[in-house]
Hints:
alpha/beta; 6-stranded mixed beta sheet
Amino acid sequence: MATGESFRSLAFSFRISQSYITRIIRLVLKYLSIRLTPILLSPPTKDGLKIIAENFWKRWNFPNCVGAIDGKHIRIFAPGKSGSLFFNYKDFFSIVLLAIVDANCKFIFVDIGSYGKEGDSGIFNKCGISEVTRTGEYFPLPEKLRNSNIKLPYVHIGDEAFRLDRHMMRPYSKTESRKDYQKTVFNYRLSRARRTTENSFGLLSQVFRVFYTPIPLKVETVDYLVLSACCLHNLLRDRYIENTSYHYYNFDHNEPQPSTNMTSLAKTGGFANIEGFCVRDEFKKFFNSSQGEIPWQHHQVQQNGSL
C-alpha cells in the first residue's frame, strides 16, 4: 500500500512466491478493514455532526455544513467477464470511491466498489447513508446561522454531479453565476469549503503510493485495500492534528497528483427540488450580508472571475 510495488518485486525482496503474497495481502487487508472500520470510520452522532459543522465554520467559513462529498475512480485491471460494467468515461477500468469528508480532511463515510461507469449522484442515491439523509433523520435540527436570525438545515456540500435538495448544496451553474455577482460569491464560498475532499484524496494518494498505478488485485480485494487505506488515513490525520513534535505526514505540494488513477467522476447531476433552491438562496444572501461575508471574498471572486 505504501510503495505500490509490484508482486514480482515483493517476491524477489522477501523470497516468497507471488501467489502466496497475493493470499497474504488479501487476508491482511480483509482483517484490517474489519477491525479498523468500527474504530476509525464509525457513523457520527448528531452531537458529532454539530462539532463537524463548527469546524467547517471556523476553518472554511461555511455554516451548518456537516461534510463535503465527492468521488474518485480507483483504477484497476479489467475484471474477468465483467463486460463494460467497470469501464468509465475516461476509457479505463475502475471502481468508485465515494466519500464524505470533515473539515480536517478525515473521512466520515465511504462507499467503495461501485461500477466505474456510474456517476456520483447515482452512487450516492444507492448507498446506505442516502436514505437517512433524504428523510432528515441523519441531521441535527436546523439552527440559526452565525450572527443572524436565519435558521437553516444542516447540509452536505458537493459539486454539479449531485442533486440539489434541502440537505445537499451544489454550486450555481456558470451561466447563472456570470449574470449574478452574489451567486459567484456563493460558488466561491462553497468551492472553498469543498476543497477538503480534494485535499483528502491528495493526502491519501501521497501516503499510499498504490493509488498512483492500476491496482493488480481482484475487485473484492481492492475494496478491502481502499477501505483499509481510508481507515489508516483517519488514524494518521488524528496524529497529525495533535500538537506534537512529530507528524506522520509531510504533504508535498510540489509533487504532481496521480494522472492515471484517482480521477474525478463525470459531472452528471440529478434533478433538484424547490426546497433545495430556497435553502441555497438563503445561504447566498447570508454570504453577501455583513453578518456572513469574509474580508477577502470579493478580492478572490474578482481575481478568479465566475466560479
